[in-house]
Amino acid sequence: MSSHDMTPMSWLTGPCDHVDFISDLHLQATTPRTAQALFDFLAQREPAPLVVLGDLFEVWIGDDWLSHAEAGFERNCMQALAQACSQSPVAWVCGNRDFLVGEQVHQALGWQALKDPSVVIAAFGRCLVTHGDAWCLSDTGYMAFRNEVRSVAWQSRFLSQDLNERLNAARHMREQSQATQAQRTQWADVDLALARAQLQAHGCQHLVHGHTHQPADQDLGQGLMRHVLSDWDVDQARPARAQVLRWRAQGYERINVAPAGL
User: Among 21, 47, 159, 166, whose CB has the most other CB atoms within 10 angstroms?
Assistant: First the structure.
């Protein structure tokens, strides 16, 4: 998503009795079971607003990838998402893996792209949402990388390359990321002082974010709460992980949508 668009910073869900949140599915052709869990969830859920908080895809090298002969998996995902968007309002915040999802996809799906962070406003309340990576201030190496790849100049250069060059570059960046992660003794978390400040600045008591893969509900003090989304992995993780955070007037609850027995 380009940094010079008119993407809104809030989203009115419309009439509803609940809102669902998901993130960090990291979909790719090698995760067919995770993709099927998403397809089943989208097909079976009651009509209600859905907020996708980034890293829906493991990598996105540009919307023109959808026309590539090897992009059958991504086209199947688009078909399922388009069907869901035709039945219920869907909002999207990009993640650190799929930040190059662009206008072609937004228009094809009809979902609402949001800035990071944004406020989701329902009849029963408001909450602040973010993918979460931009608030992991202690991860200085990643923050420098993020600033580079989110720049208009970097994205213009990257997208000007042909698809095969972009694929190779994405694989190289992924390998570097995996090597860095393998050496870590602990995962970066969002800066809690920043989280509190952002909640107060946006007039919200509840924060929902992904990115860290550490699902939890945490009291931040001063009447503030954060809700961290789970990642999804039905292909390798046992027990399988596929969880939805559901927001109602009564509060927030976690719903397991992983296939039974996995």
Answer: 21
